[in-house]
Amino acid sequence: MADEVTIRIVGSFLEIDPTEWALLSGTSRSGDGYNPFVSHAFLSALEQSGSADAETGWLAHHLLLSEGERLIGAVPCYLKSHSQGEYVFDHGWADAYQRAGGRYYPKLQASVPFTPATGPRLLVRQGEDRARVQALLAQGLQQITIELGVSSSHLTFLQQEELPALEEAGFLHRTDQQFHFINRGYADHEAFLGELSSSKRKNLRKERRAALENGVSIDWLTGKDLTEEIWDQFFHFYIDTGSRKWGRPYLTRSFYALIGETMPDDILLVMAKRDGRYVAGAINFIGADALYGRHWGCIEDHPFLHFEVCYHQAIDFALARGLSRVEAGAQGEHKLARGYEPVTTHSAHFIAHQGLRRAVANYLEQERQEVAQIGAYLEGHTPFRKGERALRPGEEIDG
What we know:
alpha+beta; eleven-stranded mixed beta sheet; four-stranded antiparallel beta sheet; 11 helices; 25% strand
């Protein structure tokens, strides 16, 4: 007799065995497809630090799928009382529904808080039938949305391969755009520059030189380099810049202490130093095949330093480590000129109310067409050579 399949909701990562979770999310960068943002260490740090909890509007509501006694699937979920910290905006949907007399919040959000990076949302235990478990999780999310009586459920920055199960369960498909650096087997940064048009090569080399004027140098810090003193300095950058940019930074100081203790080898800080002290820095997370840039901060303004710390150094690190890409976060067409290419991102949305669902479905159909058109346009404006003679092996790059 087959074991019964059951779904339950837990309100804290403290209720989830880290070893069991690792069978769903992978354990380290050596694991195939490992994504640090769905690790137990990262998600529990958000909760334990008070960065994503009930008080900040992220009430943990994680979905666990078991077959008999075995955990075979999961979805990291939150009941949300707002739409902040998601980077896939549905404020317009909420306003329209509430003007019509509906109650949009709370909603169910399947995502990694404050993290606009693509990764698995329908987590499947290693060795299980992936399509079957994904279908069960998608159906479970739809069922729980209805049983809870909430307006909707949303999976953001999911992997494209998860879409079929979700669409079969009645979720609507949404697309958006990001800019990623794609490593096409470049031996080093010079080889990458060799693929750009001559004018773009010269501009980027000039930009990188200018960023390091005034005695600025760059350090890569990871693993044991991530001391509490370093975190104090980086947090100062984050608070100073984040307060000006967002008004209220999301992450607490204890979040950095926790991830520095539990996942230091998955973290890269790119730190800029001048006159013997750090003046700027960017935090990145290291996956099995990608470097994920998250946020930066500074206490001194220097021309082009943001581009150097966040984008050029990320490319250097990815090439040095043999990573396939750099995902540089949300938005930012300025990344295009620096070798980052337009990439489509995906989300899925279940709307319980049929009238709102029809309106959203119509909107998303038009939006997908617009995203595709913009992507095609941007593809034609990358800095890569178009019809220029390719450099011969060993030929020197100008500029």
